[in-house]
Amino acid sequence: MDRLDDAQETLRRVHKHLAPTGTFLLSVFRPLLETQPGVETSKTREDGSVISVQSLAQETFDEQQLTVTRLLYCIRRDGQIEAQVERDWKTRWYECHQLCCMLEKAGFVVESTYDFEGKKSAPQSCNFSAVARKPAT
């Protein structure tokens, strides 16, 4: 999703498909590159090949609430590269108060928001979970 309108439409569709009085739990986080570019994470697959991902760079666009992380994926067998591809991982983030407004606009009643430690989240937090309910009618 590259536009806020897309996210609003997604919430509207979730609301439409949820049963009356149904609950929707949504966790939101602002992605930050936790390791230095160049750090590689890998896993050996059942066939003996190794698949890895390496973060190359990360750029944040605050006005658009967008983070773009450049990733390099590689498949190796016997130490030789069989395939590799670079891809951008685009992630949009929302502040708690902003997402609550979006949920309400989609027809939900926001019951609570909390941080990842279970405490009430701050309005400007970008790392939180929201519990929203679809009214009976």
Task: Walk me through what this model shows.
18% of the residues lie in helices and 44% in strands. The chain is an alpha+beta fold and 137 residues long. The chain has 2 domains: 1-30 and 93-137, Vaccinia Virus protein VP39 (Rossmann fold, 3-Layer(aba) Sandwich), CATH 3.40.50.150; 32-92, Single Sheet (S-adenosyl-L-methionine-dependent methyltransferases). The strands form 2 sheets. Strands 2-3-4-5 form a 4-stranded antiparallel β-sheet, with no helix packed on it. The protein has a 3-stranded antiparallel β-sheet with strand order 1-7-6, covered by helices on one side. Strand 2 (40-44) and strand 3 form a beta hairpin. It is elongated and about 60 Å long.
Topology:
Layout: H1 4-17, E1 23-28, E2 40-44, E3 50-61, E4 66-77, E5 80-92, H2 96-105, E6 109-114, E7 128-133
Tell me briefly what this model is.
By secondary structure, the protein is of the alpha+beta class. Helix content is 18%, strand content 44%.
Query: What's the CATH H-level superfamily name of the largest domain?
Result: Vaccinia Virus protein VP39
- CATH topology label of the largest domain: Rossmann fold
**Assembly context of the chains:** single chain
**CATH second-level architecture of the largest domain:** 3-Layer(aba) Sandwich
CATH class of the largest domain: Alpha Beta
User: Uncertain segments of ≥5 residues (pLDDT<50)?
Assistant: none
Structural class designation: alpha+beta
User: What does the overall shape look like?
Assistant: elongated
Number of domains: 2
Order of helices and strands: HEEEEEHEE
Number of helices: 2
Largest sheet: 4 strands, antiparallel
Mean pLDDT across all residues, rounded? Answer: 90
Please give the radius of gyration in angstroms.
19 Å
